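Quick check before the chapter quiz. The format below is the same one you will see on the exam, so make sure you can read both the input and the output lines.
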Amino acid sequence: MSNVITPPAAELAIFGGSPAFAEPLHVGRPNVGNRARLLGRINDILDRRWLTNNGHYVQELERRIADKVGAAHCIATCNGAVALEIAIRALELKGEVIVPSFTFIATAHALQWQEITPVFADIDPRTHLISPASVERLITPRTTGIIGVHLWGQPCDVEALGSIARRHRLKVLFDAAHAFGCGTADQLAGTWGAAEVFSFHATKLVNSLEGGAIVTNDGALAAKARLMKNFGFLGYDDVGYVGTNGKMNEFSAAMGLTTMESMDEFIAHNQRNYYQYRDEIAAIPGLRLLEYNESHRLNYQYVVTEVDETAGISRDRLLDVLWAENILARRYFYPGCHRMQPYRAYFPNAGLLLEQTERVASRVLILPTGQTMESGDVSRVCGVLRRVLESGSDISRRLEQQGPGRHRDVFSQ
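Here is the expected output.
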């Protein structure tokens, strides 16, 4: 338990008090790694004058990613969304593909962009992962595949999804944007399904500024994806397949290598923050921490909480209070893909089949963590949470008198 003193609610910044933090405390503040090593690589790139088109550092990053996760092939891309689009096209998915609605919008858009219909499945309320039972209920003659999302770095129920896919002759692809370095005790994300896709966006544990990768053990699929990310070029003046420009540049690869070298340090720091949050949140009424399965290999990048009905204050009102304190918590993945355009126009009644998604999307609050946060910062965040939730009803009534709250749109992954 923390010894932080929690002043009365009247002193909250939203009511005119001083913010708990002088500078904003972010979710997903980028990790940098060894700056000298990064700058050394950048200088080497400038000396080589090879800035893109499958350069030295891109090739090295692909080898290291494949070795890390135990996959035979890695194709680095300019970002995770393009990696997902290429993987979907390389797998020749069409018709309908089942995905969770509780995910970043890119998962659905990567399908819709290619005129494939995303069909939204519900989630397990305990883990927030796609529910295999929901998936099976949604299969139709038009279904060609399933995309599972390893949300918060937790591995999906890959065995159940694989079993469903085999029975119905479907292809399985995994969106592993959150899950680099994560997996079960004996297998990391990167080797399940036909392929898996990583994101190395700036907010991720390992980042390449912007970047992504497709990993697979299927040599033919890897060769096809590698062609597709470079306009389909087989060689000079020889195009053998339709493609796009999905290449990663050398500067991004240099950042990816640098942050990858420090990932154990990043994970250890996140884990310490997570354990401290877990201990302090346990005593805060109306707030529940999503607890990870400690038998899994995790990166602890996300501190995921749910604000429940006993809190006396809604998640969105609590978010306004925290933002006033410069605690920039986020409401991932509100309101669910099925309530965003164009999907809410296509499927206006989808929420009737997504009970857990609707419930979780209205409650989830992601708290700041990462390299820039120390133990005292975690305690101060928890002190604010305790102060608010111990007087949730009173604070909520006072906020109602002030008028509508502010709405926070989520653009980061």
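If your answer matched, good. The domain at 35-261 is CATH 3.40.640.10 (Aspartate Aminotransferase; domain 2).
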